[in-house]
Amino acid sequence: MDFDVIVVGGGQAGLSVGYYLKKAQKQFLVLDDQKETGDSWKNRYDSLVLFTPRSYSSLPGLKLPGNPEGYPTKNEVAGYLNEYAQDFELPIYHNALVVELLKDKGAFIIKTSRGDIYRTRQVVVASGAFHTAYIPPITDSISKRIIQLHASDYRNHHQIPSGKVLVVGAGNTGVQIAAELSDTHSVILSCSKKIKALPQILLGKSLFWWLDNLGLLNVKAYSTLGKWLKRNDPIIGNDLKKVKRNALIVDRLVDFKNDTAMFANQTKMEVQTIIWATGYRNDYQWIKIDGVLDKNNLPIHKRGVSDIQGLYFIGLSWQHKRGSALIHGVGEDAEYLVNVME
Length: 342
Hints:
The chain is α/β, with parallel strands linked by helices. It folds into two domains: about 5-130 and about 280-340, FAD/NAD(P)-binding domain (3-Layer(bba) Sandwich); about 135-195 and about 235-275, 3-Layer(bba) Sandwich (FAD/NAD(P)-binding domain). Helix content is about 25%, strand content about 25%. Strand 21 and strand 22 (about 305) form a beta hairpin. The protein is globular. About 40% of the residues are buried. This is Oxidoreductase.
């Protein structure tokens, strides 16, 4: 057997697992499809700043440098993750996209885009909650004259031509991009339901300080409160106020004819650019093992432990608690998984 454990994905979830695997003196390898640790953060839009302060943005064993009450930029997080991997000397093999995972006679077989083949007793899938950009099928009916891009491809306002910009999706990313573009463009924000927002600072303290001290970061995914919070997760910060002031908020996008967008409340509007802030879907087609996914192609698991012996998941949204997909929260899930491994 080549390894005790192979971790698929070298973002914050994979690094956290690597930290605890090293403490447990396991023979392991992290396979990552990026050129270097932290690249997935570098590739996000230029103005991105975390809504969690530095005190809630660290992985186990190493604090994020800087003012703990301040909010880190995307490049700061990228540099921190790179430093983390180096400080703990984690064995990471880059430019190694995993294209197939099989199980044969008690061993997992992993194949990468480089042609490498590995055998291991256990696998942790740490490819994260934000893996494959999702654009709804309606895009096929839209005029070729309209510029379209997913939020994952947005960097700054310079890449957006003049004219009306339609941002579809009113989660944190959509609202932040709409707020930024409202300084330079005519912006329309399409949302499917009423937007709920919470301030980033409340009575002089970070929102996450309040969530932590009120116990809300520890709410379990399958509790009654957890189920309610998943359905009613608010956006965080003051960007919504700016959007309400500088942009136009409209109903759900339902159709497109030529250059004209049509919304559920019968509003019609011509636009020149569409930014799809419609989220991500995890792509698990490379897992060639029966019984891993449910009918919605989501992992079947209990706190990251799948029904397949030796196969684990980490970094999923609401994997165990409210903070499971956040940098601060993933460490607890990583420690748990390593402790339950053989």
